Amino acid sequence: MKCPFCDDPNTQVTDTRENEDGDVVRRRRRCVKCDKRFTTYERIDLKMPHIVKRNGSRSEFDHRKLTASMQLALRKRPVTTEDVEAAVDRIEARLLSLGEPEVPSEKIGELVMKELKKLDKVAYIRFASVYRNFADVDEFAEVVREVQARPKRSRGSGPATPDPEHDLFGG
């Protein structure tokens, strides 16, 4: 860190303290050359990638918009706010881990669908029907069949019994 008074690059840290939340570090420094003291602050600087929409336009990532779209799909479904927030956190962590400055909106849509599929099958179908913009009923029915697929039986177990809460068409 160079000295703001004489521009010398040689400074020493004389004191380091974190704030109460632990997200900011305050450092007192002394310039070796001019002996002046100054304070610096370190903060985490995580930058979410910009979103590249289907039409090619770009926009900043918006946590509230992501949360609102998931809540809309989950409207009147038995999923807690904490579960929604945890899903949004996982999506954001995944986007950050990509390390890309820009991410196509399709990638975010796929991440949302993956999380919704784990949270609630009905919400997943709601979101998929809008997000994928189905051209016909057959495409919609394919997604319904996908979530209706029964898990494979393990050896020695009896027949898989359907879960009536998730068996969308009673079949």
From TrEMBL:
<keyword id="KW-0238">DNA-binding</keyword>
<dbReference type="InterPro" id="IPR003796">
    <property type="entry name" value="RNR_NrdR-like"/>
</dbReference>
<dbReference type="GO" id="GO:0008270">
    <property type="term" value="F:zinc ion binding"/>
</dbReference>
<feature type="region of interest" description="Disordered">
    <location>
        <begin position="148"/>
        <end position="171"/>
    </location>
</feature>
<keyword id="KW-0804">Transcription</keyword>
<keyword id="KW-0067">ATP-binding</keyword>
<keyword id="KW-0678">Repressor</keyword>
<dbReference type="InterPro" id="IPR055173">
    <property type="entry name" value="NrdR-like_N"/>
</dbReference>
<comment type="function">
    <text>Negatively regulates transcription of bacterial ribonucleotide reductase nrd genes and operons by binding to NrdR-boxes.</text>
</comment>
<feature type="region of interest" description="Disordered">
    <location>
        <begin position="1"/>
        <end position="21"/>
    </location>
</feature>
<dbReference type="GO" id="GO:0005524">
    <property type="term" value="F:ATP binding"/>
</dbReference>
<keyword id="KW-0863">Zinc-finger</keyword>
<feature type="domain" description="ATP-cone">
    <location>
        <begin position="49"/>
        <end position="139"/>
    </location>
</feature>
<feature type="zinc finger region">
    <location>
        <begin position="3"/>
        <end position="34"/>
    </location>
</feature>
<dbReference type="InterPro" id="IPR005144">
    <property type="entry name" value="ATP-cone_dom"/>
</dbReference>
<comment type="similarity">
    <text>Belongs to the NrdR family.</text>
</comment>
<protein>
    <recommendedName>
        <fullName>Transcriptional repressor NrdR</fullName>
    </recommendedName>
</protein>
<keyword id="KW-0479">Metal-binding</keyword>
<dbReference type="GO" id="GO:0045892">
    <property type="term" value="P:negative regulation of DNA-templated transcription"/>
</dbReference>
<dbReference type="GO" id="GO:0003677">
    <property type="term" value="F:DNA binding"/>
</dbReference>
<dbReference type="Pfam" id="PF22811">
    <property type="entry name" value="Zn_ribbon_NrdR"/>
</dbReference>
<keyword id="KW-0547">Nucleotide-binding</keyword>
<dbReference type="Pfam" id="PF03477">
    <property type="entry name" value="ATP-cone"/>
</dbReference>
<keyword id="KW-0862">Zinc</keyword>
<keyword id="KW-0805">Transcription regulation</keyword>
